[in-house]
Every structure is written in C-alpha cells, then in structure tokens.
Input
Amino acid sequence: MGKIKLAVIGTSVYAQRLTGCIQKNAPEYLEVFHCEAKEDLSKVLPRLQPDILLCEQEIQTEKNLSRQTVQIQLIDDQNLAGEAGGSDQNTKQIDKKIFRYQRGSEILRQVFQIYEQNSKKNLVCRCKTAEIEMTAFYAPCGHELLLPFSVSYAALCSAHTKVLYLNLSEFSGMRILFGDRDGTNFSDLIYGIRQKNERFPLYLQSVLHHAEQFDYVLPPANPKDLYEIQEQDLACLLTLLQQQTQYKKIVWNCGTLNHSSEQIMESCSKIYCLVRESIFGRFRKTEFEQFLRKQSPGKILEKIQFVNPQAGNGIFTAGVDVLTQLQSGSFAAQVRKLTGEVS
Output
C-alpha cells in the first residue's frame, strides 16, 4: 500500500500542535503536513494532492482537488460531531465533522475510520493511537477455558501495569468465580454512557469491582443486552476509557462473536483464540478463519494468535482458591508459556 497523505490546515497554535501529535502517533505509511491558511492553498494543495484534509472550522479549502480527497472539519460543538457536510462537483463532500477538544490520538483514530469508510480501503494497524493496550480473548471451539485463561492473563499482566477486565460473554461463570452473584454490570455501564458522558467516571466507579490483582466489570446479566449494544456505545466507551482513566491495559473476554465483539476485536492490538486440538476443533477453526476472510479481511485475522490450552489432571488443586491458582499455579504457567507476553 502506498503512503497516505494527510494535510492539517489551520493558522492556530492548536493546528500546529495537533500536526505534531498526529506525526508522533502516525504509522509509517502516513505522511502528515501542516498548511497554514495564509499560504496559497490553490497552489500548495493541488501539488501535494492529499488523500485527507483535516481543516479547522473557519478554513475555506481549495476546491480544485481530486474527487477522492476526503475532507474533515474540526468543530467546537460536540453535538454536531459525526455529521456530514455539503458537497460540490470537484471534491467529495466534507464527509464528517470531528470534535476538536479531545486527544490527538483519538482524533487520528477517527480520521482513519472516516477515511476507511469513504475510500473502501482496509487499513490494518492503522495508527498507534492506543494509550491503552487492548487484548481480546475468543474461543470458537468451546468456551470452557475462556474465562480462566483470560482471567489468568489479566492477573499476570496486573503485576506490571494497571489492568481492567471486561466481559462480553453470556453465562461465563464469572459471578460465581468472583463471588459476585448480584450487582451492577456491563449493561449498567452502557446505560450510564448513554445518559451523561461527562459523568463517566462516576458511572464506571458504580459498576467497578476489585479483585486483588485487577479491576473488572461483570458481564450483562441478560444475554439479550449484548445484542443491544450499539457501535457508538462501544466507541464512546473506548474513548472515555482512554481520556478519563488510568488503565494501561484492557483485557476483553469476547464470548460470542456478535457485532460488539467484532468491533472490540478490530480495536485490539492482539487477539488470542483458544482452540483445543481435536478433529472438531480443527473444523471449527477452519470455518472461523473462512468467515473472517470473507466478512472482515485483514481487520481481525492478522491479529489472531491461536493457542491450545490444556486442562488435564493436576492443573487445579482442590481446596485451594481458584483465583490464586490462576495467578500463580500450573494453569498460570501455561498461560505464560502460550502467550509469551507475561513473565
């Protein structure tokens, strides 16, 4: 894939700083330029032929550009963010508006998302926007080890960084494992996001539970809630976790491959898929890979690492706390070996 050119247009100090932030977080295939409005844009932009224009709200951009150029406005009103602008015969429409008062890395993530939607290009590992590193776990061949494997991984990672464990798996057994049979859960968190974004820290604290090693949110009590989570709900959640929390790593338990899990997997840097070594395990793995190649080529499949966990005799000791064994027992040693990430 050739390099993508992004031009940030504006005269303010903010535009200069935003350009520097984007350059810092940009992948190798993205070239970032800053153009001041006082420059002769009618000469600069046609010569540069940027693929993306990111303009401050008051800037009038040059219209004599390629029809493939995606134009995006930075706006002050958060309520108007995401709306499409007008169009003309020489350029594409100003496809979207992005709220300017947020992290530069989040602006870059949204820029790439808009560009991908309009250009129909798949941008794998599009940018280094993740102040929070995210890892997902999924088991296409049976979920009996999904909870202990992902919980053990979260516990091991917590020795080095601040970890949040989020569960999108129905009937995962998490409530019994942690002793929380009732209480607030992921459904309440999504409801809180929809009500008042600026009060997100309060809503998060109201649903947050604390293990000795890491923090976690229980999965929705009703599986139907998993299918009612909207794309904008998760996008808002990921943005707010980056902006308003101190977590450095999020571990996702994606128990069901629905639209929510796919969106989460696309945002993660790594995905561990648990596949048992058996005839039917190989069948399900093959069908899963075929599905991903057809439905989301390049977005998810290239991030996946297949692992084969074992749970034979001697893995768990009767009478010993399971969470302790997940952090320091034989099963934890197996998680270390299979992932290679935690020591």
Remarks:
- The two ends are 36 Å apart (CA to CA).
- The first strand starts at residue 4 and ends at 9.
- Residues 87-93, 124-130 have pLDDT under 50 and may be disordered.
